[in-house]
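Hi support team,

I submitted a single chain yesterday and got back a structure, but I'm not sure I'm reading the token output correctly. Could someone confirm the output below corresponds to the sequence I sent? I've pasted both exactly as they appear in my results page.

Thanks,
R.
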Amino acid sequence: MNLPVKKILTIFLFSLSFCLDLTGAPRPWDRDEEGRVERLSQALQNEKNYVLFLAEDFEGERPWGFYRSDSFLNQTEFTAVLPDSSAFPKEKEVLKTSGYPEIQTQSSFLIQTYIENPRRDHWDIRPIEPLLLPLGLPVQAIVWVYSEGHHLNLELVVTQKKSKEIILPLGVLNFFGWRRLEVPINLPKENARLIQSFSLPVSVKSFRLSSLPTQKRGAFHLYFDNLCFLVDTSTFVYPGAEIQDTWGNKR
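Hi R., thanks for writing in. Yes, this is the structure output for that exact sequence:
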């Protein structure tokens, strides 16, 4: 890569990291969800190598199920309860212009289960069929989640052939109502090389829930909607650097 192009790229990634806050940890919830969606839209307009991939719209076409759970209550269904945030329809418009003109937003994904031992109980909720991301470096994951103040930790687990699991922390669900959760994805160098050199895509493995000691025993339920990924589809690599390193180091 020649110096001017590399310099422009560095400046772009530096400025965009302020917009998307790709710091390697779940971003503290921002009440200005509309603003976050608008900044995402601007990033997509400014850099054509980036695409917004709707991995799961939870409209009922892809079955999901519990895995690693001993609870007597493990129920899933698709329901008409939708995010009530004003940012949700705005994000839908961004998805329409990102390759999903026929996107439907008529249902969400409900899970219901039971906490017997708050200190030890945990669950994986997995897609029954493979859920592959497009080839490229995923740099951000976004999902809508409804909770009722549960002391549960939520992680998104992604995987890749010839590699270990990659855990993306979405945070503790001790809030009430719908929230748009985001987490930056800082792939290890070996995973980036598996994509760039061997065309091995990343896939979604599960949502992983674990109960905190402060959680009360009993039944609880959650809703999920619109799991999206921001993906860098460029294929260039310059000596001595990985594109993901730049995202992770800038604040």
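A quick pointer for reading it: The domain at 33-232 is CATH 2.60.120.260 (Jelly Rolls). Let us know if anything else looks off.

Best,
Support desk
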